[in-house]
Specification:
The complex is a heterotrimer of chains A (308), B (396) and C (363). Chain A has 13 helices and 2 strands; from the N terminus they run ααααβαβαααααααα. With 308 residues, chain A is an all-alpha fold. Chain B is an alpha/beta fold. Helices cover 36% and strands 19% of the residues of chain B. The chains are: A mainly alpha (308), B alpha/beta (396), C mainly alpha (363).
């Protein structure tokens, strides 16, 4: 019967839809973190940046009526928070992990404090491309609804890969990340390259937040982030600091998020908490399989984790 | 090598500085006394004696006050009673269900002089309220949703709750008559009795007018996870559901997602019609203002929980105005309105029984036998652990 | 060390943190002023709510107690050079172990039950983080990421158990395990409302300090943390050290979970997922992984959280203002750590060598 086939077709469609919907924030945050970590510094504070970006995007979209201005506002908020992190974590004797954790608290505080007034109102959402308009089947239509931000993110990934491989500035970033003393010997200003990398990385992450509040789920609420900022740090390591692999990993995570509810909707109801934790379990298993103690993770920037 | 002179601070200045900061520290004690009093609250020292006619009431919310959901419904109730003469309210939001809420309650009692507390989240009851109530017998604690047991719980504790499932029943009727696919969807947080009762009442209402209707339920696992709630809504719509409802702390996500997918929805906790101008049918709302006003009047009249003047277990439904139905949306047809209003009238005159047997659960077992009519106040309903026939989904 | 000649560098350790606190108060006051609240009123409320009376002090200590234990879960592996943020997961697992033991042995004398609960919590929490250490040592998996993922997995396990096999059927609207018998509850320190978890935390921090600073085990840990290759060449059993330190770290957080179960909730349910773990990470980092400093920082954070409650009730500031305050305080403290050794005021003055007439003749 059409109803039953529709049921079972529903699960893969829901996962495809969930992938396209949910991977955008992961993508932006992981690309931003990738840039930051290539320069040798970890930014754990992206969770706070994500929230502040989501809040400012929603607020500005509501106040001005233009969602794209909201996206821009989110980016600016990300720049500000990134600048604080970049300046503070590069001072001698300060650990970037510690600053990142303090920034999570600070960023969340700012986002929630100013966001109180915006929980109730509805802000104009970003337009959506209907890639499924050719079909008469509503679930397929909705699964293929894609946000322009996701397309922008997908475009940034190969550009960033090319940036690191083939441009002079990409070389500077990698040099600063692998061996700061060699970079200094080359005459590169380690401080400014890292500053720019961290700030621009934060800009991208804040736009990831804008995806959450202006696209999917399309609201502002204090629980809107389910740890995406922190997961992005895992994503980057999982993707071996390669932007294209960040793209695939982000898509994987976005899809994994949709598994729990999709399975419940066709009747697989036990162990729902474990299904909901599937992105985390996946990552752990894949990391266990692919890592090895014999060599440091290939591709890991040399200065990452030290205080150089 | 630097040639500048190192910073030289004369001893005299150091001593002056120390004296100045000590003076600051000492006088700051005076400042706290001179803190300007804000219009709604007073800050004083460790013990307070508020002027006699003033009633200091404390509210504690587990979430943000304006979440378009549970905490907001209580906050609205607080707004109603803070307008009453001689009543001052103080509140804290986002208080988790840990030792923190105990500290909050104690601070409200000691620093704000509260004599009546409304900790509004279910999880505050055991052990937090019970512990603080035992230690503060002069303060009264009114908890939302708890099941007070005479002799087991301290005498200065009471509980209240509304039979919002009556409104859910009518919402189910409207949904059942408006659906075209016959599939209704319910996004629920956790499979606890209060939630199951809403699901079952909604389903019974829908099937009373549309016997082929089914209600699909997805449990997200927590009271507020916007991403999972949106995913659940989307996957159910993909399965053909065309009326959504929910029982989560903040229904905003579900309602807005349903509106984006161009299907119908019914609301919960507060009036969400603004969020879904096209698809909103009706909704079940709390009216805590009524409940709170009743309590305040009883307290002002000198009644207390401990002497039995105030009832320990307060329940009420549509008739007692503990809850109400949201105004009908534009999508509701006149014929549907007539049927729904008819049932509403039956609730209002007390003749409506939702759980009248025979009722089977969705595994085929009989849970309410024939000839049995369970009134809303029946305590077995507060222990509900089954899903009625017509619900697609499992509890565990 | 001659205090008279080196008072400057000694006072640096006190003056810089105090200056950091004052600067953060000023910044927060500015933030409040820009939002229309009188900053001096804010300072008054902060002082009152955190340290202004015996009542407030106890509130601060109640909030600080779990943080001392969870901070050790990050501070101990950090000495080995590992960044572990799995405190929340270890706390939850410890709580599960504690309630399981507490219910299984409930007929035995209370002291035995409490010891059993503590041991179960220590073992479960310790194994949880030891797993993180093992993954790092044997498979090279980054410990920060794996401990973070284990947090989420632990919370999923807690929810599954509490709503499934361990559920108490009478815990209707809040799925929980069966409650502990009242005699087995962890009591409050007599005369106050702070429970014994505070004592556990203090003892644990002191033991941790001596372990790391004064024992050969601790010396081995610090050496491996400084330069792992040198440690291996010196023959230190780095693998065993990693596993041992991670077990100890997890056991501290597990003990915090036991305290939550035995003193506050008396059962295990979803409220065990409190966020104390993440606050513990912050405490450890700000205290620069020094267990004794963790005690002070935990009290500071407890005071901050207590003041947040007061700010909401007395001044109508919303509940996020305490997060902003915390963020400002910790950012400024981290900034101040970069000032050690930079300010000339704190550099000990060189006593110029005396030139006596009877020095070398000009050759």
């Amino acid at each position: 019967m059409a109803a039953e086939t529709a049921d079972w077709l529903g699960v893969p469609l829901a996962i495809i839809g969930g992938t396209l919907r949910g991977s955008a924030p992961f993508l932006f945050v992981s690309l931003g973190e990738c840039l930051t970590e290539k320069s040798g510094k970890i930014n754990l504070g992206l969770e706070g940046t994500l929230l502040t970006g989501a809040m400012s995007a929603y607020a500005v979209s509501y106040l001005t009526g233009s969602p794209w201005l909201g996206v821009l506002a989110a980016g600016v908020a990300g720049l500000c928070l990134g600048a604080i992190h970049a300046w503070l974590s590069q001072r001698s004797g300060v650990s970037d992990v510690a600053v990142g954790i303090a920034m999570i608290v600070f960023g969340s505080g700012i986002a929630f404090f100013f966001g109180k007034a915006f929980i109730q109102p509805q802000a104009p959402q970003l337009p959506i491309f209907e890639f499924g308009a050719w079909s008469n089947y509503p679930p397929l239509q909705s699964a293929l609804q894609v946000s322009p931000l996701l397309l922008i993110g997908i475009a940034i990934a190969p550009i960033m890969q090319w940036f690191f491989k083939s441009t002079r500035w990409g070389l500077y970033v990698r040099a600063v990340g692998d061996s700061p003393s060699a970079a200094r010997a080359m005459g590169i200003s380690v401080f400014w390259v890292r500053f720019l990398a961290i700030t621009i990385g934060s800009f991208l992450s804040a736009i990831g937040g804008a995806c959450l509040s202006l696209y999917y789920p399309g609201i502002w609420s204090e629980n809107i982030s389910s740890g995406q900022g922190l997961m992005a740090v895992a994503l980057v390591i999982f993707a071996r600091w390669q932007p294209m692999q960040c793209l695939w990993a982000a898509l994987l995570f976005g899809g994994a998020q949709a598994i729990g509810p999709a399975l419940q909707s066709v009747g697989v109801t036990s162990f729902r908490y474990l299904f909901n934790a599937s992105p985390y379990i996946f990552t752990l298993i894949i990391m266990i399989i692919t890592c090895s103690p014999k060599r440091t993770l290939a591709g890991s920037p040399g200065a990452l984790g030290t205080n150089e | 090598m630097k040639d500048e002179k190192p910073l030289y601070i004369p001893r005299r200045q150091v001593i002056r500085g120390i004296i100045a900061s000590t003076a600051f520290g000492v006088t700051s004690q005076l400042w706290t006394g001179c803190t300007p009093t804000e219009p709604t609250t007073t800050t004083t020292g460790t013990t307070t004696t508020p002027p006699a006619p003033e009633l200091n009431i404390g509210f504690i919310f587990v979430g943000p006050k304006d979440d378009f959901g549970y905490s907001q419904s209580h906050f609205q109730g607080q707004g109603v009673i803070s307008q009453l003469a001689g009543v001052k309210t103080v509140d804290e939001a986002n208080v988790p269900e840990t030792a923190t809420v105990q500290e909050t309650m104690l601070s409200m009692i000691n620093q704000n002089g509260a004599s009546l507390l409304f900790p509004t989240s279910f999880g505050y009851f055991d052990p937090h309220i019970l512990k603080i109530a035992k230690e503060n017998p002069k303060v009264q604690f009114l908890h939302c949703g708890g099941l007070y047991k005479e002799g087991v719980h301290p005498p200065n504790v009471g509980s209240y709750y509304g039979y919002i499932d009556e409104a859910e029943y009518i919402a189910g009727i409207v949904a059942g008559l408006t659906t075209k696919s016959g599939k209704l969807g319910f996004v629920a947080a956790k499979p606890i009795p209060q939630v199951l009762r809403n699901i079952n009442s909604f389903t019974l209402g829908a099937r009373s007018v549309n016997p082929k209707a089914t209600v699909q339920v997805i449990f997200t696992g927590d009271w507020s996870i916007p991403v999972k709630e949106a995913e659940a809504t989307n996957s159910m719509v993909d399965q053909g559901v065309d009326v959504m409802t929910c029982h989560v702390d903040s229904p905003k996500v579900v309602i807005e997602t349903a509106e984006k997918r161009k299907i119908f929805c019914t609301g919960y906790h507060v009036d969400q019609s603004k969020l879904a101008p096209n698809g909103f049918l009706t909704g079940s709302e709390w009216d805590w203002g009524t409940v709170y006003t009743q309590y305040v009047e009883q307290v002002k009249a000198g009644k207390t929980l401990a002497d039995g003047g105030i009832s320990h277990l307060v329940r009420g439904g549509l008739k007692e105005k503990f809850c109400k139905l949201s105004p009908y949306g534009t999508a509701v047809s006149d014929a549907t309105k007539k049927v729904a209003d008819g049932v509403l009238a039956k609730f209002m005159d007390g003749s409506m029984i939702i759980y009248a047997g025979e009722i089977k659960d969705n595994t085929g077992k009989v849970v309410v036998t024939k000839d049995k009519k369970l009134k809303q106040t029946d305590p077995t309903l507060e222990k509900m652990d089954w899903l009625v026939e017509g619900v697609v989904g499992k509890i565990g | 060390m001659n205090v008279l000649t080196s008072w400057r560098s000694l006072s640096e350790k006190i003056a810089i943190p105090i200056a950091a606190l004052i600067l953060s108060l000023i910044l927060f006051g500015l933030f409040c002023a820009l939002n229309g609240t009188n900053p001096f009123a804010v300072y008054g409320v902060i002082y009152q709510s955190a340290f202004g009376s015996a009542f407030s002090w106890q509130g601060t200590l109640v909030r600080a107690a779990p943080l001392m234990l969870t901070a050790l879960c990050t501070a101990l592996p950090a000495r080995l050079g590992l960044v572990v943020i799995g405190n929340e997961g270890a706390l939850v697992m410890g709580g599960i172990g504690a309630i399981a033991a507490g219910l299984a042995f409930s007929s035995l004398p209370p002291l035995v039950v409490q010891i059993a609960m503590a041991i179960a919590a220590i073992i479960l929490g310790g194994i949880w983080i030891m797993g993180v250490g093992a993954l790092k040592y044997y498979r090279g998996v980054n410990e920060t990421i794996s401990s973070l993922l284990m947090n989420y997995i632990a919370i999923a396990i807690l929810n599954t158990l509490v709503e499934g096999p361990m559920r108490d059927p009478s815990s209707l609207n809040k799925p929980s395990t069966y409650p502990l018998l009242e005699v087995n509850w962890l009591q409050s320190i007599p005369g106050s409302r702070v429970h014994f978890g505070l004592i556990y935390g203090l003892i644990a921090c002191v033991i941790a300090y001596f372990l790391i600073q004064r024992t050969t085990f601790g010396f081995g840990v610090r050496t491996a943390g400084g330069n792992i290759r040198a440690a291996k060449i010196a023959g230190l059993p780095v693998g065993k050290l990693t596993l041992a330190v991670c077990f100890l770290a997890g056991s501290c957080a597990g003990l915090a979970g036991m305290v939550e179960v035995a003193a506050i909730h008396h059962r295990a349910n979803a409220s065990l997922n409190t966020g104390y773990g993440y606050s513990g990470i912050l405490v450890a980092f700000v205290a620069r992984n020094n267990p004794l400093a963790s005690v002070l920082v935990a009290i500071l954070l407890g005071g901050l959280l207590a003041s947040g409650s007061g700010l909401q009730r007395s001044l109508g500031l919303n509940d996020a203002s305490v997060l902003v305050f915390q963020g400002i305080v910790f950012l400024v403290i981290l900034f101040s750590e970069s000032m050690y050794g930079k300010l000339d005021f704190f550099k000990d003055r060189q006593v110029p060598p005396k030139i006596t007439p009877s020095t070398q003749p000009i050759a």
